[in-house]
Automatic annotation (TrEMBL), chain A:
This is Branched-chain amino acid ABC transporter permease. GO terms for molecular function: branched-chain amino acid transmembrane transporter activity. The keyword Cell membrane applies. It comes from the Bacteria. The chain crosses the membrane at residues 56-73, 79-100, 152-172, 203-227, 239-265, 277-299. One of its GO terms (cellular component) is plasma membrane. It is a multi-pass membrane protein.
From TrEMBL, chain B:
GO terms for molecular function: ATP binding; ATP hydrolysis activity; L-isoleucine transmembrane transporter activity; L-phenylalanine transmembrane transporter activity; L-valine transmembrane transporter activity. InterPro entries: AAA+_ATPase, ABC_AA/LPS_Transport, ABC_transporter-like_ATP-bd, BCA_ABC_TP_C, P-loop_NTPase. Involved in beta-(1-->2)glucan export. Transmembrane domains (TMD) form a pore in the inner membrane and the ATP-binding domain (NBD) is responsible for energy generation. CDD domains: ABC_Mj1267_LivG_branched. This is ABC transporter ATP-binding protein. GO terms for biological process: D-alanine transmembrane transport; L-alanine transport; L-isoleucine import across plasma membrane; L-valine import across plasma membrane. Transmembrane segments: none annotated. Keywords: ATP-binding, Nucleotide-binding, Transport. Residues 5-253 form the ABC transporter domain. SMART domains: AAA. PANTHER family: AMINO ACID ABC TRANSPORTER ATP-BINDING PROTEIN, CONSERVED COMPONENT OF ABC TRANSPORTER FOR NATURAL AMINO ACIDS-RELATED. GO terms for cellular component: plasma membrane. It holds the Pfam family ABC_tran. It comes from Bradyrhizobium niftali.
Amino acid sequence: MRPAIVIFLLLLLLFAPFVLDAYTQYLVNLALSYSLVCLGLNLLLGYAGQFSFANAAFMGIGAYTYALLTSRLGVPSLVALPAAGMAATALGMVVAGPALRLSTVYLAMTSLAFAELVQWTFIHWSAVTLGTDGVRVRWPAVGSYVAQGDKNTFYVVLVVVAISYWSALRIVRSKLGRAFLAIRQGETLARCSGIDVERTKTIAYAISAFYAGIGGALFALTIRFIVPDGFGLVQLVLQFSMVLIGGLGSLLGGLVGSLLLTVMPELLRNVEAYQEMLYGVLLVLFVIFMPRGIVGLLGRLGLVPQEILVRGAVAYFDARRRKHSGL
Amino acid sequence: MAQRLSIEGVSVDFGGLKAVHDASLEIAPGEIVGLIGPNGAGKTTLFNAISGLVPVSSGQILIDDVSLSDRPAHERSKFGIARTFQAVQLIQDSSVIENIMIGMHSRLDHGLFDLFGQFRTSRSQDYVAQKRAYEVLERLSLGDLALTRVSSLDFGQQRRVEIARALVSEPRLLLLDEPAAGLGPDEVEDLEALLVLLTRKSGLSMLIVEHVLSLVFKLCDRIVVLDNGSVIATGLPAEIADNAEVRRAYLGDVAC
């Protein structure tokens, strides 16, 4: 029954470009790109319980890899997209190194330093990155078809986001996703359950960076012009807000948070000066009163089904119950 | 199949403190051994040494003559060691089945195909493994609670979920760290019945740290007494109950 709902919603989304105006369409594309960036952060922070300030940098690496490969080297979009993910993954593994040895404030500082270093590279390695001039990004092309305009780009974004969410769902509903949760609960528990904590953490960083990188690539092809400034501290605060407001430790949470925080600034256009303050206040309020975010609240009210990280668990126990009542 | 755990002259030092000193004990297949002693005697430290959470400074921990001393904690579940914790270590926000499946980690082998290529849910490893998980849940009368969040279970049920999580990995040796702590008298009786059922049928061995002595004396085949990090007595429950040194160390000078 649930896959049917998902397919229905996806079909509904396919018609979105026919009803939305160009600007709203652009916002939807942007929100969907952000949802992948948040997916990466959420897997690391919400599932594996690992702290890192490097997510904006992973996104930046994905965005720059995609933009430079397509615009400067003429690499096809379909090759540049996974390449963006892989580039971010490679750097995710680099961050995982110190992350295995450090914790708390030291890890926070190290990952922040890494993020600054990445941004510094975007600015100063101008022979490649064009520095503060930024990089212009072309419309994505699939074969000889060019997805001109936001409405056509939407389909490219939608397909990538759908595949990403599907794969993320498979990951969290496997022994890997449960190992993330076990590590979040406590490393002692994880070790005694046969989980190789160091290896699993490294995988968490790698996967998280991969999604953030893909999200960054979609971000680049949606806003079509990227500058180093876009991947700094403000970006990081935005991502944390999206994940925490949407729902920590829930795949749906990142999606809800990114939709909300992409659309909300538009509604608050005339009070722009207060936007960042508002994020701060919201962040504090949510952390204190709704630590599992909007999706967590909806779950408690029974409006969103509980996320169960075992593949087919509900089906299995339904079948079992039917068998029992049949006997 | 059956495995014998031998602890030979194990010491664990924390800086200058000798938490466990030259301790030796054996657990035969199917045997239930109680580990008792006053607070701070080193019982949990010895447990942690067997689980691989703290390094052994001298001595050997052997499973069927294979030394575990150099193996990291996460590899030891492959040797058939599983444990529960003094303070319940469950993911409160998750359902019982998710918590149980964590215990099955080393038994599952999700390759990339099972992750992304296996489109039929009913053929995925998780789905198949749930049969085993469910059997264990049934045995512990938790079957109906599989999809319930742990946070809404009472404490006795949570203890049982912990035991279930340890059992699904099909261990040969189960380490129980104060399984009766926080349980009411009725629940302790249920626990005893459960533990008897588990060992008598399957040849599973157990090492139990417990302060509820009535449980230890009724349940265990043999009792090992630890005091100040050293084994001061080993024997049948009746022998231990009559041992003067044990009485002094454990029960105080006031005879009971």
